Amino acid sequence: MLKPPAFTMDLDWRVFHPQPAKPAFVPPAGAVDAHCHVFGPGDEFPFAPERKYTPCDAGKEKLFALRDYLGFERNVVVQATCHGADNRAMIDALKASNGRARGVATVKPDISEADLAEMHEAGVRGVRFNYVKRLVDPKPDDYYRGIIDKIAKLGWHVVIYFEAADLEEKWDFFTSLPTPVIVDHMGRPDVSKPVDGPEFGLFIRFMAENDNVWSKVTCPERLSQSGPPAYDDVVPFAKAIVDRFPDRVLWGTDWPHPNMKSHIPDDGKLVDFIPRIATTPELQRKLLVDNPMRLYWKD
Ligand code: 0GY
Question: Which of 11, 75, 84, 103 has an alpha carbon within 20 to 30 A of 115's alpha carbon?
Answer without folding.
Answer: 75
